[in-house]
Design brief:
The chain is an alpha+beta fold. The chain contains 13 helices and 18 strands. It has 2 domains: 4-102, Orthogonal Bundle (Helix Hairpins); 118-420, 2-Layer Sandwich (BirA Bifunctional Protein, domain 2). The longest helix has 36 residues, at 28-63.
């Protein structure tokens, strides 16, 4: 959520910054509501002063055994009713302002390149050239089905499209990836947490999923709970409505979770395989830090996410997203993409984002400076990484001519085997 004070004092600058994302932004109505709200507050304060003064005078007269005039009593009653009416109007105004602010995207950082589409993202790093194979590599869904570790047909029978059933050594590989990711990040200084998959509306609103993206969420209507689209929601909300000490920052968390997404805008896209499912596993990295350090923390967060891909021996690259391709709450985002030889394309496997104070304003997370002054923390998160997509990348990158898949060396202590053979 953007600061209304920032918009009020710099409307042209905020409008220009937001329009870097693409499309026009209209703030006139918001500014009008804000002006009405401030004017209303002044009027209410004046009426309260008048009411209190009249009440005090009536009280004095009663103590003296005198009866107050009907005019003074009437004035006090009128002031009280007028205050109530204005309070109701103020609540309506504040709801309008809040709803408007909740639907405004974040302001892109000045370092973010301009652009309208993914084609204008800028590559900042590549780990090497994709390795060449002496045979035609297959996509992961064909490999997995032939190995007997992926079953999409049975998953569709159980649940419908965009679900996967893992079997045998596929289950072991999935668990191995999760454990490897978590162990790597714990060694890098992240504290592991395991948070709920079901969260309340305040938690979803706090990280920016609501109200704008409600159609993407799976909702349990009877309980007013939502299935999380990412562990970012649960983990960042750990500190909602808290004041942290500056000396305790940055807070660094790693969390495994299942994730649930409707994928309502992806009809006809990636209908095969593990790339875009309604349910998938992910290991998430979350940071809370000071405004002064948040951009440095974004760089280290991205490197930490890359580290697991490096250790696995996967070919990956890092892109800084342009203004037109950034997420709703992002101030700056790096995407990490992994090479998929079976699909002959790069696939996003992690997004590492600095939200600055966009989320912390929604969640009311502040930190106390040494002089007792309070400021909003900056929040960051990134996939460390998407397990299903990494599973797919391992199958495609380490497939052999005989149809087997070699297990990356760093995973073998978790799997207990070094190869998955065709049945």
């Amino acid at each position: 959520m953007l600061d209304i004070k920032l918009i009020r004092e710099n409307p042209k600058k905020v409008k220009q910054d937001l329009e870097r994302r693409g499309g026009e932004v209209f703030l006139d109505e918001l500014l009008q509501w804000d002006e009405e709200r401030r004017k209303l507050i002044v009027e209410m304060e004046s009426l309260r002063e008048k009411r209190n003064k009249a009440s005090e005078e009536i009280g004095k007269l009663k103590k003296q055994g005198k009866e107050p005039s009907s005019e003074s009593v009437s004035d006090m009653d009128q002031a009280r009713e007028c205050i109530k009416e204005k309070e109701r109007f103020l609540v309506t105004l504040e709801q309008k302002i809040e709803d408007f602010l909740l639907r405004l995207p974040n302001i892109p950082d000045e370092s973010v390149p301009g652009g309208k589409s993914p084609g204008q993202n800028i590559q900042t790093f590549i780990s090497g050239e994709p390795p060449k194979k002496d045979f035609e590599p297959k996509p992961h869904w064909e490999i997995g089905e032939k190995l007997g570790i992926l079953d999409f047909e049975t998953a569709a029978k159980i649940s419908g499209s965009r679900f996967a059933l893992l079997k045998g050594k596929g289950c072991v590989l999935e668990r191995a990836l999760i454990s490897f990711f978590i162990d790597t990040q714990v060694a890098a200084g992240y504290a592991e947490v395991f948070a709920p998959y079901l969260v309340n509306r305040a938690s979803m609103q706090g990280t920016g999923q609501l109200p704008k993206f409600e159609e993407e969420a799976f909702r349990c209507r009877e309980d007013e709970l939502y299935l999380i689209p990412t562990a970012e929601v649960s983990v960042t909300n750990i500190h909602r409505d808290e004041i942290l000490d500056e000396k305790d920052l940055p807070k660094k968390y790693v969390s495994y979770s299942a994730c649930f997404r409707r994928e309502s805008g992806s009809y006809g896209k990636d209908t095969k395989g593990l790339i875009r499912n309604h349910q998938f596993n992910k290991v998430e990295l979350v940071k809370l830090t000071t405004p002064q350090e948040s951009m440095n923390e974004l760089e280290t967060l991205t490197r930490d996410a890359c580290e697991v891909l490096k250790k696995l021996g996967l070919t990956y690259k890092v892109l800084v997203l342009c203004t037109g391709d950034m997420g709703f709450g992002s101030s700056k985002t790096y995407d990490i993409e992994v090479w998929m030889p079976g699909e002959k394309r790069w696939r996003e496997i992690s997004s590492c984002t600095n939200f600055k104070d966009f989320q912390s304003r929604r969640m009311n997370i502040k930190y106390r400076l040494g002089d007792k002054k309070k400021e909003y923390v900056h929040t960051l998160n990134g996939s460390g990484v998407a397990v299903g997509r990494c599973f797919a990348a391992v199958l495609e990158c380490f497939q052999q001519k005989d149809g087997s898949v070699v297990i990356p060396e760093v995973l073998r202590k978790y799997t207990g085997f070094d190869r998955i053979e065709p049945k």
